[in-house]
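Internal tracking record. Fields below are filled automatically when a chain is submitted to the structure queue. Please do not edit lines marked as system-generated. If the sequence contains nonstandard residues, flag them in the REMARKS field before resubmitting.
Queue: standard
Priority: normal
Entity type: single polypeptide chain
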Amino acid sequence: MSKVPNMQKVAVSGSAERELLMGNFPMTVSGETLKNTIIYQYKSIAIKKSPNFEKNIFADFRKTSKSIVHEILKFSRKIL
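SYSTEM-GENERATED OUTPUT FOLLOWS
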């Protein structure tokens, strides 16, 4: 039975966590290679700037909701 080497828990940025959850990390063979690859991945992913998809989605939603409120107010003014 082989022992699994102890690995330090590394604080990751949101983009690194997203990459890991999506499975975008290399497969390795040996424990030493795995250790080096994980450190390299954390450094390289943290440097990359990921696009902020949430900001784009909420910006579109804000525009739509403002126009809906505007139409409701126009309609209510006509009735009164």
